[in-house]
């Protein structure tokens, strides 16, 4: 196994890559990136163990990295199976990632290799560094907090033990939330909680380590659970997600919070989910009926091939005609964006089509896209235009226009999809489609129930 002895040392190459990827992460890949609770981050040089829910592969790690504004270079712990390839292992080491081995990924005989990683992580913490780990030891595919494994508390207690229990290690809970896990231009918010120590568990650890691991996991999980959207019962996951979407605007209007600020979506969805859980406890029969209605609503949307945002929306022939005309006028600009960005945008598909786990697709999109396909294609455009025009300035201008057209290329396509859906919705309404009429009534009924729930509970 490759050496990780210098993994916590400052790297200039890492710092340069950090600045480049920051631009991609903040302003290109995400349409909105917010960090809440930065005042809770311990000063640089404080032994800090970051723990976070895990929902979106590499993007979760990038969110944590860019939550720090002091230039620190945190060390991450990731699943060991991704280190099997030597080249990949060296790249991951450069990115300051160390392996932890799980029985589901490697032979049982290799699991003990994690002890080397945990000891190295403990030394990083003792030296005043920052280590980040995802206690679920794997990403969830939903807004749901999974069970915590023992790897994280083993590192925490090992660091304290190596420092004779005088380290005062700070555990920093972090939660992430996304508008969409897979799409380009998704929105993301990182919530940073108050750091805490765990000295009250030292005596338990000295006598019964496993009991101390379980207790620290229990405390930590409760803290992260309070900060994130956690839909506990996955059998009602899709129903809860739709109910959150239906009532979100109304809820934020009631508490006088703007819908345009994405962290407010997390606030609204957390509160609505909590109220639905309480409603389930106090009104089991009515809750069951609400779930049945919501499931029927979801099925109707699928049959009609429509999205929730259209149901009940006022759509006129004139507005649709005007929108269609404007899209037609913008077609040449879209074609410019298509020509320049289709290949670099879809190049990551070469890799993602072989990966069954969709939650890893966004990781490949941002890595392959930002580090390879877009730089290479844009460099090629620059050289071609420079040679053809004989003017280096023209080459630079063309690359800038190509980058700007990336957003037009993406949003135009999304807009056309929505326009076609709006025409379909308009035609359904014009023909008095009975399923659509029933679906509108069903949504209004669900909305009425939700208004009572968020007011009364």
Summarize the structure.
The protein is of the alpha/beta class.
Low-pLDDT residue intervals, each spanning 5 or more residues? none
Largest beta sheet: strand ordering? 1-7-6-2-5-3-4
- The count of DSSP E runs of length 2 or more, i.e. the number of strands, is 7
Task: Return the domain count.
Answer: 2
Counting helices, strands and paired strands, the structural category is alpha/beta
Beta fraction: 5-15%
Question: How do the helices and strands follow one another from N- to C-terminus?
Answer: HEEHEHEHEHEEHHHHHHHHHHH
Distance between the termini: 55 Å
Apparent shape: globular
Tell me the major beta sheet: 7 strands, mixed
Cα Rg: 25 Å
Q: Which percent range fits the helix content?
A: 55-70%
Overall pLDDT metric: 94
Provide a descriptive summary of the structure in words:
- The protein has 457 residues and is α/β, with parallel strands linked by helices.
- Helix content is 59%, strand content 9%.
- The protein has a seven-stranded mixed beta sheet, with helices on both faces.
- α9 packs across α10, α10 (284-304) packs antiparallel against α16 and α14 (361-389) crosses α15.
- The termini are far apart.
Please write out the topology.
Elements (H helix, E strand, L loop, with lengths): L11 H18 E7 L11 E5 L4 H9 L9 E5 L6 H9 L2 E4 L13 H13 L3 E4 L17 H12 L7 E9 L7 E7 L9 H6 L1 H19 L9 H18 L7 H21 L1 H21 L12 H13 L1 H16 L2 H4 L8 H29 L2 H39 L3 H23 L1
Parallel strand pairs: 1-7, 2-5, 2-6, 3-4, 3-5
Antiparallel strand pairs: 6-7
């Amino acid at each position: 196994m490759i050496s990780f002895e210098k993994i916590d040392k400052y790297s200039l190459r890492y710092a340069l890559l950090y600045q480049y990827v920051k631009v991609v992460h903040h302003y290109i890949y995400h349409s909105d990136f917010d960090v809440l609770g930065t005042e809770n981050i311990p000063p640089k040089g404080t032994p800090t163990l970051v723990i976070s829910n895990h929902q979106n592969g590499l993007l979760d790690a990038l969110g944590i990295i860019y939550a720090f504004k002091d230039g620190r270079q945190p060390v991450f712990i990731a699943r060991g199976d991704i280190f099997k390839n030597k080249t990949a292992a060296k790249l991951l080491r450069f990115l300051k990632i160390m392996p932890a081995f799980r029985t589901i990924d490697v032979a049982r005989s290799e699991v003990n290799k994690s002890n080397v990683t945990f000891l190295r992580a403990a030394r990083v913490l003792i030296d005043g560094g920052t280590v980040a780990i995802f206690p679920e030891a794997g990403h969830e595919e939903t807004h749901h907090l999974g069970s915590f494994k023992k790897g994280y508390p083993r590192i925490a207690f090992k660091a304290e033990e190596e420092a004779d229990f005088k380290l005062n290690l700070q555990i920093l809970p972090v939660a992430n939330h996304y508008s969409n896990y897979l799409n380009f231009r998704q929105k993301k918010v990182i919530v940073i909680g108050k750091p805490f120590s765990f000295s009250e568990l030292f005596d338990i650890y000295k006598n019964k380590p496993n009991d101390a691991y379980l207790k620290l996991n229990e405390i930590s999980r409760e803290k992260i659970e309070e900060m994130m959207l956690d839909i506990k019962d996955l059998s009602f996951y899709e129903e809860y997600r739709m109910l959150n979407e239906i009532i979100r605007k109304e809820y934020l209007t009631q508490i006088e919070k703007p819908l345009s600020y994405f962290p407010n979506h997390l606030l609204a969805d957390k509160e609505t989910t909590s109220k639905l859980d309480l409603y389930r406890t106090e009104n089991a029969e009515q809750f069951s009926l609400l779930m049945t209605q919501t499931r029927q609503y979801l099925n109707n949307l699928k049959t009609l091939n429509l999205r929730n945002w259209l149901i009940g929306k006022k759509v006129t022939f004139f507005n649709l005609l005007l929108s269609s005309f404007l899209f037609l006028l913008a077609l040449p600009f879209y074609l410019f964006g298509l020509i320049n960005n289709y290949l670099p945008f879809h190049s990551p598909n070469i890799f993602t089509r072989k990966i069954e786990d969709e939650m890893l697709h966004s990781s490949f999109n941002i890595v392959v896209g930002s580090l390879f396909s877009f730089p290479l294609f844009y460099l090629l455009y620059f050289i071609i235009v420079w040679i053809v025009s004989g003017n280096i300035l023209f080459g630079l201008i063309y690359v800038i226009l190509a980058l700007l057209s990336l957003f037009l290329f993406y949003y135009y396509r999304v807009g056309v999809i929505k326009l076609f859906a709006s025409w379909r919705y308009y035609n359904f309404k014009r023909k008095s489609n009975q399923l659509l009429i029933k679906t509108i009534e069903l949504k209004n009924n669900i909305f009425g129930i939700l208004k009572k729930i968020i007011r009364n509970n």
